[in-house]
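User: Teach me something about this protein's shape.
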Amino acid sequence: MQDFDKFWLLVIEVWREGFAGVDVGRLLTALGILLIFMMARGVFSRYVMGRVVSMAQRTANRLDDKMAEALGPPLRMVPLVLGIFFATQHLQLQGIYAEIAENVIRSLIVANVFWAVHRIIGPWSFLLDQLERVFTHELVDWMVKAIRVAILLVGAATILQIWGIQVGPIIAGAGLFGVAVALGAQDLFKNLIAGILILAEKRFRRGDWILVEGTVEGTVENIGFRSTMIRRFDKAPVMVPNAKLSDTAVVNFSSMSHRRIFWRIGVEYRTSIAQLRQIRDGIETYILNSEDFADPPEVPTFVRIDRFNDSSIDMLIYCFTRTTEWGRWLEIKERLACAIMEIVESSGSAFAFPSQSIYVENLPADQPDELQPSKLANRGNTP
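Assistant: First, the predicted structure itself:
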């Protein structure tokens, strides 16, 4: 009987001492408080947040929908933070344990606040859309990402100060580390700065068709921090460092206002002056009367007899189409080529082709009849 009493006294002593000077009864009560708030969190998420989202969806404004969606996870953490706060208050901790509990509560509040601010940057980023008049869409995206990273860094620094960790020495050490990294990663920072300059100068955008001299030609799919992905016309992706794009000549075909057609056609030397003028005037009339081509003085347009070539009289055709779409441009070129053929044929002339005339003054008397000068003269030009 005495042993049982002794054991019971030990149980009572353990119950009273508990942990950190808090009896087991208070610990169990605090655990119950935390469980109640966790269950309340489920009710809050299901009904309260569901009601808020439903009300936001009824309005015509899409901003409140995005705000409700963004603030949902941080708000669902509020009951849990409250549960931890009331549980620790019920424990009536003393000394170092009370200080740790208070720092935990402060850290959770700061983390939740900065988490909410970080998430609402997305819905409110439309305010930065006005900057797209000055900067590109990609650069504005970079700015949004930079703001989010800055918010996270400030939140982390605030939590560190709550725990008594000085941020100044950490920043100084990070600065020295950054200098060391910068010396060993010059290409990385060079590409990063080049990417910012590309976006700020609006040299090209996502979806543009560009030609990087001596490197690649294709469509821009993504402009990253270090490199830009260009998909060639054979659908192969090419990653080009931003520094190369900044230092190399880049032709942006998507920025063309018109597409050029620059041809030289050759007609036979037997073509008369009247026929040449008829061909020239017919081609010029077709171009000027067609809605597919831009007219002077918007763009220069020339149809001129250009030069005497070895086997032809060349005519220069220089004009611009209104469309810049490649497929549409090919269709216009095709129609122009067919029209030129009809104009040349209707004039009674023909297109020239490379040819060479051979004149033989005399041959030995024992040559066959086919090689006699009189026979050769009757054969005319030999291609």
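Now, about its shape. The two ends are 132 Å apart (CA to CA). The chain has three domains: 16-177, 203-255, 259-346. If you'd like, I can walk through any region in more detail.
User: That's plenty for now, thanks!
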